[in-house]
Amino acid sequence: MKFTETHEWIEVKGGVGTVGVTNYAQKELGDIVYVELPKVGKEIKAGEVVAVLESTKAASDVYSPVSGTILEVNQNLNAASDLVNASAEDKGWIFRMQLRDMNEMEQLLNESEYKAKLGQS
Questions:
Q1: Which CATH number goes with the domain that contains 47?
Q2: CB neighbours of 29 closer than 8 A, spacing ≥ 6?
Q3: For the chain, where are the alpha helices, taking DSSP H only?
Q4: Do residues 91 and 75 lie in contact, with contact meaning Cβ atoms separated by under 8 Å?
Q5: Could you tell me if 40 and 70 are in contact, meaning their C-beta atoms sit under 8 angstroms apart?
Q6: Which of 7, 64, 103, 117 could link 25 by a cystine bridge, Cβ 3.0 to 4.6 Å?
């Protein structure tokens, strides 16, 4: 699993990345009440806004960690957006994508680098 400075995570298997927001992000947002999911088939670039999380506090953009094509969205979030709060780094994933360039993964943070950015050890 790799992380962005904007609190997204990506886990890649066979060139397909599963993307969501970190536990830290969901805690900061508070109770998620709605998730605006991206469209399947959409081409996206690293750093582009892909989805929006709406919480009782505010709306927050979700950025793509890498470039590629949206393959699948987590339809469970339509009925249960609180999955992002309950299981941000597992069942609360937001979308899956086909990566365009695996080398972009090298720009992302590993878990210890991400925790260091948060001031955690």
A1: 2.40.50.100
A2: 21, 53, 55, 57, 58, 60
A3: 23-29, 76-79, 83-86, 111-118
A4: no
A5: yes
A6: 7
Tell me which residue has tokens 């699948």. Answer: 72
Q: Per-residue pLDDT for the chain (121 aa), expressed as one digit of tens each?
A: 999 999 999 999 999 999 999 999 999 999 999 999 999 999 999 999 999 999 998 899 999 999 999 999 999 999 999 999 999 999 999 999 999 999 999 999 999 999 999 987 5
Show the tokens assigned to 47: 């750093």
- Using the structure block, give the residue that is written with the tokens 């060139």: 15
Q: Largest Cα–Cα distance in the chain? A: 38
Contact 20, 35 (CB under 8 A): no
